Amino acid sequence: MRIPDTERRSFYLRLIYALCLCGATWTHLQVALVHGLWWDYGGAAPLTRIYWTSLLFIDPLTVLLLLLSLRAGLILCAAVIVTDVVHNSWFAFHHPIRLDLYLSQIVFLLFVIFTIRTAWRGAVRRSVALRTVD
User: Fold this and answer.
1) What does the alpha-carbon distance between residue 21 and residue 121 come to, in Å, rounded to a whole number?
2) pLDDT computed for residue 124 by the predictor
3) Do 10 and 121 touch, CB atoms closer than 8 A?
4) Where are the beta strands (DSSP E) in 21-110?
5) Measured CA distances, 13 to 54, 90, 94, 114, 127 (Å)
């Protein structure tokens, strides 16, 4: 059986999103391994510390959802990258940050913004097709 193009494109986009989030997970894991889960990120505000540490768990959860629960994964992916860029933009206004990581987040956000409709259409089509097969 041939997979429709919309589903195939959705899968490839979700795979790219997942790979980017795996890279983010790796970054958060390195921080946790070096400094521990309760590191204060050099004196960052408590909510910033909680948010950044939580991404160690939220990013891989998003990866799993992108592959297993397509629409939930897309919603969480968009929420994660939007909140990450908004938060880090606010943080960068008050503190120095690593520009390479910040710019990579912005590029990923733009990629998600410009491709999520295609990913959503394929995910919705797939879920509808699976329901009709049952």
Assistant:
1) 21
2) 72
3) yes
4) none
5) 24, 28, 34, 11, 16
* Token duo for residue 11: 């899968």
Q: How confident is the model at residue 29 (pLDDT cuts 50, 70, 90)?
A: very high
Domain membership of residue 122 as a residue range: 5-133
The rounded distance, in Å, linking the Cα atoms of 30 and 13 is 26
pTM value is 0.86
> What is the Cα 91 distance to its own chain's centre?
19
Paired tokens of 127:
């879920």
Total count of domains within the chain: 1
CA angle 47, 113, 132 (to 5 degrees): 105
Residue with tokens 């956000």: 109
Structure tokens at 102: 């910040």
Count of residues in the chain: 134
